[in-house]
Fold these 2 entries.
Entry 1:
Amino acid sequence: MTRHLLSAGDLSPDDATLILDTADELARISDRPVKKLPTLRGRTVVNLFFEDSTRTRISFEAAAKRLSADVINFSAKGSSVSKGESLKDTALTLEAMGADAVVIRHSASGAPHTLAHSGWIGGSVVNAGDGTHEHPTQALLDAFTMRRHLTSLDGRSVVVVGDVLHSRVARSNVLLLRTLGAKVTLVAPPTLLPVGVEQWPCEYSYDFDSVLRGADAVMMLRVQRERMNAAFFPSVREYSRRYGLDAERMRRLPEHAIVMHPGPMNRGLEITAEVADSPRAVIVEQVKNGVSVRMAVLYLLLSGSDSALTGQLVPEEVAL
Amino acid sequence: MMRSDSGSEHREVLDADDVQRALTRIAHEVLERNKGADALVLLGIPTRGVQLADRLAARIADVEGTPVPHGSLDITMFRDDLRLRPARGLGRTELPSGGVDDAVVVLVDDVLFSGRTIRAALDALGELGRPRAVQLAVLVDRGHRQLPIRADYVAKNLPTSNHEQVRVLLSEVDGRDAVVIGGGDAVAAEVS
C-alpha cells in the first residue's frame, strides 16, 4: 500500500484503473443538486502551494470540500515561506496542525518526495506539480478525459506536442499512458526534447504533420513564455507554424480524435482560437474532470485505515 | 456442485426454484401493500441487491403491465466502518430518470444482518432526494441486528449463529441461484 501519490509511474495498471473507475462514479455526483459527500469529514487537507497555480489549487480545494474534508490553503506568498522558512519547518507546522494530507506544488523537482520520505509529516503527500518533474493528477485527469471519449486507452495513440523539456505534464502522461496501454508520441523541436528521450517508453518526432493521421488524441503543451528568450526556438511565428495546432492541421486528424490542453492556453501560439473553441477540443471538460479525479485520489488515499493504492511497480519501470 | 475446498460444511437453504418463488411472492407483497406500482422505485444495493431489484422490477412489471423504475444505490461512502478497513472502490449509483422525490422507494438487498448497510443506504438516499416513504426488501434476514432496523419484505428468515456466513448466489453473477449457509471460513464471501 502507498499512502502518497508522488509520480504517475508509481501507479500499477490496477491502481490507475481503480482511480479512473472511482472518478467515474464521483463524476456523477457533480451532476446532482447536492454535490457533497460526508466521506472525509473530520480530515484535514492542506494545499501547500509554493508556486502560483490557480486552477490546480481550486480543483484540489473543490475536490476536498466535496468530500467534506477541512481545507487549509497555504500559499508561499505572504506566508512565512517568504520570510525564509524552510520546507522542513513548514512541514512540521502542518504536522502540528494535524494535516491528514498535504497537496504540494513546488518549483523544485523532488520536493514532494522529500516531504513524503523525510519523516516530518505523518499524513499522505500528493504531488500537485514539482518543478519540471511530474504532475500525476494532471495525467490522471487527461487519461480520464481520453477514456471517456475513446472508450479505452489500450492501443490508442496519443500525440503530445510542445515544450516537453520543461513539462511535468508530459512526463506524467508518458508514464501513466504507458501503464494504461496507450502509445505516446512526443513532438517538439529538438531543443525542447530532453536529453535521453530515446530511453523514455514512448516515440518522438520533430515533425508534427507526419503524426497527425494516426492520432486518437492530441495534447498541446503550453509554450512557457518565460522561456521564450532562451533561444529554444527561433521565433514565436516559426514555432506556431511548425508546432501549433490550427484548423488546417485539425482537419487532418481522424474524425474521432480529440484535442486537449492542460491550460492555461496561449491562444494563437500553440493552439489557434478556432481549434480551442471547436467541438473537438475537450479543454473545459478536462478542468471539470480534474475535480472528479482529485476526489478519487483523496478518497482512495484517505478514506480508509489504509490507502487503496498498491503502488506496485511494473518490474521494468523507467525513471524519467 | 457445492464448493467445499475449505473442508467446512455448508448447505443450501434455498435452491433456484425457491429463490424464484420468493421473488414472485415479494413482488406481489410490494404491490399489495402499496396498492399498485404507482410511484414505486426499486433501488438495489450493490452488488447482488442490484440484480434482485432488476428481477423484482421485471416481475412487478409483468403483473401490472407497466415498467417499474429501478436502479442501484451505492452506500460505500456512507459506511460507518470506512476507517476500520483499507479504502476501497465504489459501486454504481444509478437512479431512474424520475429521481426519488415523492416516490415510494423500496431498497433491495440480498442479506439483512447488522442493519448497518441499510442505515448507510438511508443516508445515501437522503442525499439524492426526499422519498415519500422507504421500504426494505431482502432475500434473507439472518438476524443479529445492531440497529433498530427491520425489513418490510423478507423471502426467508434464517436463524444463524454469528460466525456463520450466508451467501446469496445469483445466476447473473454466480452462474446459479441459491442461498448457501456455512461455517465461518466455508464461504469466502463478503456478507454485508
Entry 2:
Amino acid sequence: MLEAQDIRVTRQGRNLLNGVSAVFAPGKVNVIIGPNGAGKSTLLSCLAGLMPTDHGAILLDSDNVAQMEPKLRGRRIGLLPQNGEVNWDVKVRDLVALGRFAHHDIASDADNQAAIISAMTATDCMPFAERTILRLSGGERARVLMARVLAGQPAWLLADEPLANLDPRYQLELLALLRRRAQGGIGVVAVLHDLTLAARNADHVLLMHEGGVFAAGVPDEVMTAANLNAVFGINSEILRDAAGRLVIVSN
Amino acid sequence: MKRKALLLTLLIAAFILSLSAGKTWIAPVNWFADNANGWIIAELRFPRAVLALAIGALLGLSGAVLQGYLRNPLADPTVIGVSSSAALGGVTAIYFGLSIWPYGIFICAMIGAGASVLLLAVMAARGNGVYSFILGGMVLSTLAGSLTAFLISIAANPYAMSEILSWLMGALTDRTVDDAVRAVPFMIIGGALLMTTGRTLDALILGEVGARSIGANIVRLRWIIIAGVGIGVGASVAVSGVVGFVGLIVPHIMRGIYGERPSAILIPSAIGGAILTLTADALVRLAPGAGEIRLGIVMAVLGAPFFFALLLRRGRESGDA
C-alpha cells in the first residue's frame, strides 16, 4: 500500500495541498485527475518522497517515505517525471542503465544488465539501443524513458502526465504497458489529463480539486457528470460505448 | 582503449615538448647534463611543466564537471566567473598584505572560487534557465573584475600594482619548484574530489527531479563541487593567474570522441586539458623577441571564438538564442 495521510504542503503562502489523504493499492492502475493547479503533481512529488510535507506522512507499506534512505527509496519507487527531461545526447542503453543507479552497489553486473535488457525488451527499445536520444522520435523517446524507470524494477511506478506530447497510438501503447505492469503486481499511480482515457484505464480514480481530494473510488462512481462539472467547470456528458466503457464528452 | 593510449601518448609528447622548447632548445639527452642546460630543466622547465600539466588537467576536469552539473556545455571556470572570483580573492590577499604568508594568496583565491560556485549553484537551483545562468556568471565575472580593478587602482605603490597585473594576466613564466610544491597538492585534492562526481553527474542527465528520484544525492554533489572547484581552481589561479577557456574547449572536443555521458569525459578532459596547456605554454616561449606571450592571453584568443561558435550553434539547435 502507498498511503498519503493528511498531507499539507504550503509554499510561499500558498496552500498547494490542504489535507490530502489517499490510499493506493498495488497491482492496480491508480489515476489522479483534476484541473490545472489542483495539486496533482505536488501530490505525486510527495508520494515519490521528493517534496517535504508540512504536515502528514507518506507511508509505503508502513515505512515513512520521507525518512527512507534515498537509494532504498529509489529502488522501491520509480518516478517518470513530467516533460521527460534528458540533458545530454546519450545512448539509449546508457540512459536506461540510469534506472539501475540505486542498485549499483548491491546488485551484480549480470543482474543489472539483465534488468536493463528486460526493460528495453518490454518497451520495444532494443532496435535502437545503440542510437542516441536526439535521433529518436517522440514516441521512441517516451518508451526509452519508461524503460529507464522499469529497469529499476520498482514496486511502485509513479508517472506524471506520461501521455503528454504523444500521439494517440503511443498513448494507448503506454497505457497498455502500465496496465501490464499493474497486472504483474506493480502499483501504478499516474497523473492523466484525458478524462476518457483515465476512465477507461483506471482501476481507481482520485479526483482532486483546489489542493484537496474531491472524490475517490472506481471510475464509475467518481467520474460522474456532477463531479466533473463541479471540479472542471465544464459541461460534460457521460456516455458508454458498445462494450459498456465510459466515454466523456465535454461541451 | 586505443583512444586512451593515443591521448596518453599525446600527453607524454606535450610534456617532452614543454621541457625541450624555449629560447634555448634542450634535447632530452641533455636534460640531466651537469651544466646550464641541466639547471634550466631542473629549476625552471620541470616545475613549469608540472604546473602546466596540473593546471591544465584541473581546469579541463573542472570544466567537464561544471558542465555536467549545470547541464550546460557553456559552463567553464572562466566563463561563469569562478576564475575571476578566485583572482579577486588573490588580489585581496595581496592588497591586505596576506601574501607575505606563503599560503595567503592560495586560501583567499580558494575562498573566492568556492563562494562564486556556491552563488551560481543557488542560481541554478532557482532554475531560471540556461541563458540567464550564463548571463549571471558573466555579471559575476564583470563584478569580480571591477572589484579587482578597484583594488589595483588604490594599491599603495606602483610596484605592487605591476606585480598584481602581471600575475592576473596568467602565465607560468619563472615559476619555481616551491610554487609547484605549494600548488600541486591542492590541485590533486581538488581533482580527486571532482573525480568522485561521475555517477551523480550521469544521474543528472534526467534533470534534478529525475536524479533525486533514483536516489542521487544532489546536495552532497553540490558541496563536493564547491569544495573541489574552490580548492583546485583557487590553487591554479593562485599560482598562474587566470588561464581561461581550457575547461570550455577540452570537454567539448572529448564529447565528440567519447560521447556525451558526463562520467565518460572526466578523465579524457583532464588529460586533454593537460595536453592543451602544456602545448600552449611551450608555444608561448617560442614568440619572437626576448619575452614570451602570456599563456592567459593565448588561451583567451583561442577560447573566445570557440565560445561564440558554441553559443551560436546551441542557439540554432534550441531556437532560443
